[in-house]
Amino acid sequence: KSSNPLLYLQVILLKFINDRNKNISHEINESNNKNISQEIIENDNKNISQEINESNNKNISREIIENNNKNISREIIENNNKNISQEKIADDVHIANTQDVESLYVNNVVDIRINNTLCDASKLELNSDKQKFTKLNDFVFDDKIGYLACALLDGNIRASSKDYIIISYEYESIVKDNLKNMDSFSKILADNVGINKKIAIITDEKWNEIKKEYIVRLKKGPQYIFMKEDDALPSKLDKNKKKVNNHGILEAFGDIVEEE
Fold first, then answer.
1. Partners of 165 in beta bridges
2. Please, which residues have CB within 8 angstroms of residue 193's CB and are 6 or more apart in sequence?
3. CA–CA separation, 153 vs 177, rounded Å?
4. For residue 223, what is the DSSP state?
5. CB 219 within 8 A of CB 249
6. pTM of this prediction?
7. Contact between residue 166 and residue 152 where contact means Cβ atoms under 8 Å apart
8. Alpha-carbon distance 53 to 17, whole Å?
9. N or C terminus of the chain: which is more exposed, having fewer CB within 10 Å?
10. Distance in angstroms (rounded) separating the CA atoms of residues 198 and 164
11. Cis peptide before 234 (omega within 30 of 0)
């Protein structure tokens, strides 16, 4: 200690001031460190949040794009399938309608030829055609027409007139196949055995029905009416009919058409 009181007091004051400054500096440092740490944490949190948001946005965007693409692809596929289905349906309907019209036309032609055969059915024509029919046996091995000759020989001549002839077969499936060859059959008969007539092809079952109806109509009417084959389309079936008198047709049904 100094013997000088004033000097001693000055030393004490200086020490106090020095200690005070240290405390202030420490407090300032602590405060600064806190602020700096807080700023770092806040900045880090901001960066993390931003990265999370960006990542989420990317994922969300990706999901949106993928979902949109899926929806677009699904719509394209569905639309294509609908278009294909509609086109297929349209094609099927067109084919079915075409086949129906063709089938109806052929059936109408056959019905007209049956009708016209029975308008003027003749036993003389029937017997003559049956005799000529046997000549087809000479052509069964012909390379060009043999299969058609055999198909004709498998049938039975049921009725015949001057211009028409009815041939029947046992099975419907055979009739359907042979209906496609009616014109070829007519040409073979005309060129090779001297039967120049239009052919009607039916099943044995249908012939039995026609035969019964024919007997009734011979006795009681109505008379058969000649029809043109040009009228075979449905819209023309009831037009341009020419009435034919059945007077003079033999009373006995078997004298005109083939008996069982």
1. 160, 199
2. 132, 133, 135, 136
3. 15
4. P
5. no
6. 0.56
7. no
8. 53
9. N
10. 5
11. no
Q: How far is C-alpha 54 from the geometric centre of its chain's CA atoms?
A: 53
Across the chain, mean pLDDT equals: 76
For the stretch 142-168, pLDDT in tens is: 999 999 999 999 999 999 999 999 999
What pLDDT was estimated at residue 238? Answer: 43
Q: Is the pLDDT of residue 130 over 90?
A: yes
Asked whether residue 196 carries a pLDDT value surpassing 80, the answer given is yes
Contacts of 142 (CB under 8 A, 6+ apart): 149
Distance CA 133, CA 153 (A): 8
Mapped onto helix, strand or coil, the DSSP state of residue 114 is: helix
Cβ-count burial 74-83 (b if 16+ within 10 Å, e if not): eeeeeeeeee
Q: Count the Cβ atoms, other than its own, within 10 Å of residue 124.
A: 11
Contact 198, 164 (CB under 8 A): yes
Residue recorded with tokens 């008996």: 259
Longest dimension (CA), the chain: 181
